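User: Last request for today: this protein with phosphoribosyl ATP, please.
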Amino acid sequence: MKNPMSTKAYAPLASNGKEDILKIAIQKSGRLYDDSVKLLKDCGIDLKNGVNKLKTECDNFPMEIYFLRDDDIPQYVEDAVAHVGIVGENVVHEKNKQVDIVEALGFGKCRLSIAIGRNEKYDSETFLQNKRIATTYPHLVTQFLEKKKIKAEIHEISGSVEIAPGIGLADAIADLVSSGSTLFMNGLKEVETVLESQATLIKNRHLEPSQVKILDKFLFRIRAVRKARNNKYILLNAPNDKLQDIIRLLPGMKSPTVLPLAEAGWSSVHSVLNENDFWDIIERLKEAGAQGILVVPIEKMII
Ligand code: PRT
Ligand code: ZN
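Assistant: Here's the final one, the structure of the complex with phosphoribosyl ATP:
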């Protein structure tokens, strides 16, 4: 029975009368922390700031948040200590645990690349034959080399991989790259991409139906938030004789909204634009006669 004293804004979901909770593991600190917390908050999940905490609860969603090292998250999710987790695909594939990737989250983008000295001549992956490659990703690099039928010596090291060639520890490295400046500063160049990666939501393979239900609600919110981030709301004024040309440029969710302005012969046009096409379409709208263009961020987008 529901506790009448409960102040929680959600109802218990389990048929056994126990209040069900989806436990999510996110990185405790590091590159994925801020975006993970922001995603939860944008999804309306009211978590207290978690720095130096192991876990926190939420008042308005049946979720408990665990703050862990990213490397440990796949194991905890496999063991159902956490039901879901947010972690880089690079870690998921390297750890190779029994978990499923549910959704790419669009942040923490990077690639696992093989790099060699900037002045080395590189024609193909056969360069790597019998070479020493330093990495913190031995599993992924071994898989990559096997696929390419290259035999190389993999040196697993735990950090500062980029200095390995300079101190004579290795002939090449495999490390995560985002801007490329670390490689550049260490006199290295990228020659192969082993894996493209971004933060992903992973889940345990044996969730209870009530946990799946909470996960589905969470996913619905994630998708609405991500869609909104990728789109902008646009308002503009158009002379009525240019209206058809302008409308043709605007996709809208169904079709653009057109409202008459107080000034005769003019209309206000409202629509939604994808971030990728944004500048291109704005320029064409101006050329077609649009004026007073306003662009507004969208908070949530539900289609
Ligand atoms: O303490 P904990 O174990 O949780 O964290 P960590 O130190 O192992 O990981 P952290 O916080 O550095 O990274 C977490 C995740 O962020 C990674 O697993 C990736 O999924 C993602 N990510 C995205 C990156 C990068 N970009 C990145 N550039 N992780 C690391 N780097 C490092 C890279 O190793 C290299 O040292 O940044 C350097 C290269 O960056 P550029 O910009 O110079 O190319
Ligand atoms: Zn780590």
